[in-house]
Amino acid sequence: MGKGKWDPWSGMADFRQQVERMLDDDPAAPHRPGTGGYLWAPLADVLETAQAFIIQVELPGVAPEQVLVEVQDGDLVVRGERPCPRACVEGQQDPAYHMMERAYGLFARRFALPPGVDSSTITASLSQGLMTITVQKPGAKSSPRFSVPIG
Predict the structure, then answer these.
(1) Is 44 exposed, middle or buried (0-12, 13-18, 19+ CB in 10 A)?
(2) What pLDDT sits at residue 97?
(3) Most buried in the list 36, 61, 68, 108, measured by CB within 10 Å?
(4) DSSP 40
């Protein structure tokens, strides 16, 4: 272990981001249960190359048919639902959970797109719980193909 100076506030930035995501008024942001909105927002990374923006969204336990990727008002929106596993427990009626840390139910994430993006060049694929969305930069050449429905 290093000899760096201990900072009692070192984890506050992550905590603040989580709270801000929960309280965001964006229609595609997570909302409190019972409000009819989204319950959780999957974690994501956004990378940039010379030709494209690449968005990677963690969606373990979500099948491709449970996800919709679409462009709305100049934003890329990833939304869908991860079903609660209670239905997957074979032969068991109403299991009693002792701990439940993973989020289930409706989810959504919204990413601002740069001006001039051609939505027909957006590609998406879901493999091993990681959705990779490639957004070609304006003027970059690509061959459009979609593994996930783009609405």
Answers:
(1) middle
(2) 74
(3) 108
(4) B
Identify the burial level of 7 via C-beta atoms within 10 angstroms of its C-beta, where 0-12 means exposed, 13-18 middle and 19 or more buried.
exposed
Among candidate residues 102, 56, 101, 59, the one with its CA nearest the CA of residue 80 = 59
Query: What is the number of other CB atoms lying within 10 angstroms of the CB of residue 80?
Result: 20
CA distance 148 to 89: 28
Q: Are 107 and 38 in contact (CB under 8 A)?
A: yes
Which one of 14-23, 29-38, 80-89, 118-127 scores highest in mean pLDDT? 118-127
Q: Where are the domains of the chain?
A: 28-136
Provide mean pLDDT across the span 34-55.
Answer: 85
Beta strand 123-127 pairing with 44-48: unpaired
Report whether 64 contacts 128 (CB < 8 A): no
Tell me the two tokens of residue 46.
């956004």
28-136: CATH architecture:
Sandwich (2.60)
Length of the chain as a residue count: 151
